[in-house]
Amino acid sequence: MNREMKVGIVVFAGLLLLGTLVFLSGGARFSQKGYDIGVVFSDAMGLDIGAPVFVSGIESGRVNQLKLLDDGVMVTVKMRKDVKIPCDSLFTIDTGGLLGEPRVKISRGSDPECLISGSQIYGAIPPSFDEILGDIRTGLEEIQGTFRNVNVFMEKLSNAAGDFQAFSQEARDQIQRAGDTIVALGENIDSVLLENRTDLRNTVRNLSSVLGRVDSILASFDSDGLSGEDMRNTVVRIGAAASQVEELVNEIEDAFFDPVDHPVEGGEAGRPPKATSVRDVRGMVDSARRIITTIEDWYMQGRIGIRGVDASASGKDVRGDMSLWLGRRSSGLGFLAAIEEIGGDTGYSAAAGFQSDMMRFWAGAVHGHPGGGLLVYPESNAGSPYFQVQWWDEDSGVWAFEGGYSVTDDWGLYFRRTERDSGDENSAGVFYRF
Q1: How far does the chain reach from its first CA to its final CA, in angstroms?
Q2: Are 280 and 287 in contact (CB under 8 A)?
Q3: Which residue ranges make up each domain of the chain?
Q4: Residue 13 — very low, low, confident or very high, per pLDDT cuts 50/70/90?
């Protein structure tokens, strides 16, 4: 392969990479391993593409697509192919805490039949914070109405006590008048008894009736240990307490809910009070949640490798490689930093690229020269292979081909071949992934 052919291949690969980046940044996504399930929710509750899906507390998938429907939202989740979901499972959206990232939670059922790719199911959402506050507000309004009724009752009771006091005063006046009459009659008892026998009999009868009524009323008060004055004072205190409770309810309503228009001292009528409401607190919580979601969207992957080199091509037989990938889950874009050929012709790489579940490609400075690379199956699990190719413009161009096999999720074996004009170099070794 001559130099012009290699340069042409690199230029074509660069144009293909640029076009793919533009296409992917516009919203397209590579297909992922697994199967899709459509879940219809009445509200997405801030759910984003790329949000995790938990099955029995274990992350087993990602949100792949959000689509607005006439009566809700269609959330398409991509599940791992080895995860089985019974048909009667419950799909919900929660946050895992006050400031947690919205996520899909699946509580598995007991149905022997499981959902397949393309299945659709209806999900449920927990009550929102505003709905809970609405219930609390309704409860407070009911309590306020109850205390208002109690206050009205106490006012009526207080009026009744006032009427009783007036009745007692009238009774005392009648007794006083009757007593005065008896005294006057006593001065001329004989003549009075003879001349006013009938009137005296009626007066005594009336006096007896009044005294009986007063005696029964006073006995009822004495049995409870209260006098008429004590009872009235008690009623007045209860009415004052009910008024204070009503003022407290109004203050709680102004502090925690949307303030109503009312005059403010020293200002114009209709200006709301200067108080932080629950809606303001909710806004601050949403802002903090967005910041935390942005931070959690970043992830990091790295690999360290040690390999032995064929001594026929070089006098040095041991090489080391180290690479670090910093990317974003929502967009797939990332940055590659690497040090390769440690112990030989050490090269430093710094390039931008894109990663999906199946591949990663990058372009920038490779081994200190313009170049690029492609990695297939970057997130290999135990028992799966990966393949990588790089090119950088050193002298007439250098190609590096690499293939590996993951023995476990963390480490595996790999083979590397580097083609230069000065000669080819083969090496093999072990790697550790973190």
Answers
A1: 37
A2: no
A3: 33-126, 131-256, 297-433
A4: confident
**Phi, psi for 363 (deg, rounded to 5):** -150, 145
H-assigned helices in 42-128: none
The dihedral of CA 240, 241, 246, 248: what is its sign? Answer: positive
Closest Cα partner for 298 from 326, 275, 319, 317? 326
Rounded to 5°, angle at Cα 345 from 434 and 304: 10
415 pLDDT tier (thresholds 50, 70, 90): very high
- Determine the Cα–Cα distance for residues 306 and 304; give it in Å rounded to an integer: 7
Asked whether the beta carbons of 432 and 404 are under 8 A apart, the reply is: no
Q: Read off the pLDDT band of 31 (50, 70, 90).
A: very low
Alpha-carbon Rg for the chain, nearest whole angstrom, is 45
Contact 68, 47 (CB under 8 A): no
What stretches of 267-357 show up as alpha helix (H) in DSSP?
278-296
| H or E segment to which residue 141 belongs | helix 129-187
For residue 244, give the 3-state DSSP assignment. helix
pTM of the model as a whole: 0.39
Alpha carbons 374 and 363: distance in angstroms, whole number: 9
Q: Are 331 and 339 in contact (CB under 8 A)?
A: no
Q: Which two tokens stand for residue 86?
A: 């019974």
Structure token digits, residue 15: 């144009």
CA distances from 258 to 131, 254, 283, 288 (A): 14, 7, 14, 22
Domain 297-433 matching CATH 2.40.128.20: the answer reads yes
Closest CA to 87 of 122, 55, 114, 107: 114
Q: Are 245 and 161 in contact (CB under 8 A)?
A: no
CB contact at 8 A, 353 and 331: no
